[in-house]
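TA notes, week 10

Several of you asked for a full example with nothing omitted. So below is the full record: structure tokens for the whole chain, then the designed sequence directly under it. When grading your own attempts, check the secondary structure regions first.
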């Protein structure tokens, strides 16, 4: 069950990443579309890893002393990107995150 969830989320995340990179030439015109698809792909890949390891073990792994700054930066960047692109609708802020 965990392997099926892992592969489904991994393939979905890969497809979303590929779709976001395909829209890369339109980045200056519509950064929100790229950011939303790319961030959703990242979340799917993160969910795939989480499903393989288990939620509690994965959170414990991400919050170890060595990984905490990187985890906070990555999750903060994903949250900031979605906030800037979906709620603020600011292309400049979306690119900044």
């Amino acid at each position: 069950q965990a392997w099926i969830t892992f592969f489904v989320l991994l393939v979905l995340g890969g497809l979303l990443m590929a779709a976001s990179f395909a829209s890369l030439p339109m980045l200056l015109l519509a950064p929100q579309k790229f950011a939303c698809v790319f961030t959703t792909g990242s979340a799917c890949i993160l969910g795939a890893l989480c499903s393989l390891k288990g939620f509690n073990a994965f959170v414990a792994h991400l919050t170890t002393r060595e990984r905490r700054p990187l985890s906070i930066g990555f999750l903060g960047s994903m949250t900031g990107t979605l906030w800037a692109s979906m709620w603020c609708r600011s292309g400049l802020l979306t690119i900044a995150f």
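The chain has a mean pLDDT of 88. Use that as a sanity check on your answer.
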